[in-house]
Amino acid sequence: MRRFFPHPALSVAIFLLWMALNNASSLAHGVLALILAIGLPLLTRGFWPEHPPRVKALPALRLLGVVVCDIVIASIDVAKLVLGPTGRIKPAFIEVPLDLQDPFVGTLLASIVSLTPGTVSIDIDRSRWVLQVHALNVDDREAVIKAIKTRYEKPLKEIFSC
User: Fold this and answer.
1) Is the separation of the CB atoms in 18 and 36 below 8 Å?
2) What is the 3-state secondary structure (H, E, C) of the chain?
3) Comparing C-alpha atoms, which of 3, 2, 11 is closest to residue 41?
4) For 132-155, what is each residue's pLDDT tens digit?
5) Integer CA distances (angstroms), 99 to 33, 65, 157, 159, in order
6) Angle made by CA atoms 8, 159, 129, in degrees to the nearest 5
């Protein structure tokens, strides 16, 4: 079964999304949706991790809430900074030492940091397990490091049991 459906949930999602986007229920659309639902996961199989990691749902939902709130608050803060006097802006490059050593979870952490306005992940140094971040406005480097580790890294470690 896994040979034809390496990612069954993705296949179902592709099928339903194709049918919903076409807003039609003809046989031709159904066949094309089925071809895409089987073909796309097969064609992209090499890009996926061997086994998708198990996720703890409740901590994941809590992290989602934290990230959404942080995005809204950071958007307001960045707008104030950009629209105000530019002399107040204190950009900085920060190295955040990571406790996790899973490339997938590290990439998620870097993505979350980049999603939050005012911060951009530059690189994950996997030899030292350090996340390199550029922040638009930094008063206290240690506070930024602590925020990333407690608000994002710690929940990700709990979600993926790493």
Assistant:
1) yes
2) CCCCCCCHHHHHHHHHHHHHHHCCCCHHHHHHHHHHHHHHHHHCHHHCCCCCCCCCHHHHHHHHHHHHHHHHHHHHHHHHHHHCCHHHCCCEEEEEECCCCCHHHHHHHHHHHHHCCCEEEEEEECCCCEEEEEECCCCCHHHHHHHHHHHHHHHHHHHHCC
3) 11
4) 999 999 999 999 999 999 999 999
5) 42, 22, 9, 14
6) 105
Taking the whole predicted model, whether its pTM rises above 0.85 is answered as: no
Q: Domain limits of the chain?
A: 8-47, 57-160
Q: Measured at the alpha carbon of residue 92, what is the angle toward residues 147 and 70, in degrees to the nearest 5?
A: 35
